[in-house]
Specification:
Elements lengths: L3 E2 L2 H23 L4 E7 L3 H17 L2 E7 L5 H13 L5 E4 L9 H7 L11 H9 L7 H12 L8 E5 L6 H9 L4 E5 L1 H5 L3 H6 L3 E4 L17 E4 L3 E3 L2 E3 L4 H4 L5 E2 L6 H20 L4
Parallel strand pairs: 1-11, 2-3, 2-4, 5-6, 5-7, 7-8, 8-11
Antiparallel strand pairs: 9-10
Length: 288
């Protein structure tokens, strides 16, 4: 029997319904709505697509959206000055800086400059630390999206075996902490795992598998454990198709649940961004 699809749009739709009601209530009680400021330095095709999605989702929810477009030759100091001004602006609820940044700008310095309470992406060191402590209000959006998809499968997480392929700061590392906080036995694989030839072995043990590398077909379908929940974060262009990191057709015959690419993690990621913006607004207004 083929796996059941975990459609990101379906889950995102339910979350957005709740967010819209919450924003309407905040507007009535506080006389203001959340505002997200997105900063783009230079041009990048992938960023442009994400920005378009941010704007559309924000407007549909009733969140004010503002885009700051900067030249690619902007200096790091000038960018930090802009962020400092937005940190001080009480009308700004959330800030997101689009990556990649121009050469010569350290993205970690920039992310650390954003006020933790306005960190819409959940990438400030303080917010990442709260993920580690199991006390995250603003968590990394893609990791949060993957976690929502896992929970939507309805499996009991306590004691489950999970394998994450990819140890990025955006997905792999924070997601491993989110899973550990739910008492999931978690293994994180990376390039060295592959070089030793151990990746298939770790994947075959996974009751929950998350792959976030950006390499088409990296995980073979016959590696998938029977009945596993598979979350494919990868987005790769192969010819005229967009595919994930997992061999989808073969994997869906072994998994119990699997995310499609596109249509799985992607639509939910921008929704989690909006959820963070609303949470940031409530933090700044000392609301629970």
């Amino acid at each position: 029997m083929s796996a059941q699809l975990l459609e990101g749009r379906t889950i995102a739709g339910k979350i957005k319904e709740d967010l819209k009601k919450e924003i309407e209530a905040l507007s009535k009680s506080k006389g203001a709505v959340p505002r997200l400021v997105s900063i783009q330095a230079g041009e990048n095709a992938a960023s442009a697509v994400y920005i378009k999605s941010q704007k559309k989702n924000a407007e549909n929810l009733g969140i004010e959206y503002m885009l700051e477009t900067l030249d690619s030759n902007i200096t790091q100091d000038s960018l930090l000055d802009l962020i400092e001004g937005l940190n001080k602006d009480k009308g700004v609820s959330g800030i997101i800086v689009q990556l990649p940044l121009p050469k010569g700008i350290d993205h970690r310095v920039v992310m650390s400059a954003i006020s933790p309470e306005k960190d819409a992406e959940g990438m400030h060191p303080e917010n990442l630390g709260r993920v580690l402590l199991g006390d995250a209000t603003l968590a990394p959006c893609t990791a949060s999206a993957a976690m929502e998809l896992i929970k939507s499968a309805g499996v009991k997480l306590y004691g489950k075996e999970a394998t994450i392929v990819g140890h990025s700061e955006i997905v792999g590392k924070p997601l491993s902490m989110l899973l550990l906080n739910k008492f999931v036995t978690t293994c994180v694989c990376h390039i060295a795992t592959g070089e030793r030839g151990l990746l298939p072995e770790h994947v075959k043990h996974a009751e929950i598998l998350v792959v976030a590398v950006g390499k088409a077909g990296l995980v073979k379908g016959d590696w998938i454990k029977q009945g596993a929940v598979v979350i494919d974060v990868g987005i790769n262009r192969v010819g005229d198709k967009i595919v994930g990191d997992v061999e989808f057709d073969a994997a869906k015959e072994r998994a119990s649940f699997i995310t499609p690419v596109p249509g799985g993690v992607g639509p939910l990621t921008v929704t989690m961004l909006m959820k963070n913006v609303v949470a940031a607004f409530k933090m700044q207004h000392e609301l629970k």
